[in-house]
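Hi P.,

Sorry for the delay on this. The queue was packed all week, but I finally got your sequence through. Input first:
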Amino acid sequence: MSFLNLFHWLSQTWIGIVMRDSTWGFAIVEMCHLLALSIMGGTVLILDLRLLGLGLRRQSVSRIAQEVWPLFTVSLIGMVISGSLLLSSGPMRYYYNEAFRFKMLLTIPTIVFQFALIHFVGSKKDDRTPVWSKAAAVVSLMLWLSMGLAGRAIGFI
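Then the structure:
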């Protein structure tokens, strides 16, 4: 099954039809998506800025990573669910949108990188932040910013 066939199928599912024909469905789901994005963005910023030495210096990196882990995970689940519902509202429109394709291309590596970063710094007992940690924080911020910009561009392309 190709992606095009998958997107055609999605447009004919009951959830696709409900999302497409609902007056308030898209707006409500988008609010949930943005709320989850805000929580996730906060967890990413807190950890990455701490790794860069720009905040929460009295807190250990491992403790911050352990504390943001549940919020990051729950908000990611919320974003995947709400994003899937948003996609179902007009799958063919998204299929041909270059910004959507770029966002989807960035999604898996960005999430895997963030999970690895949280796991690695959360398991460290040493609180020093070596150069690689700062570089990882910069890469993380760049990946999330790129994905966010691509997501924002979806409505304009």
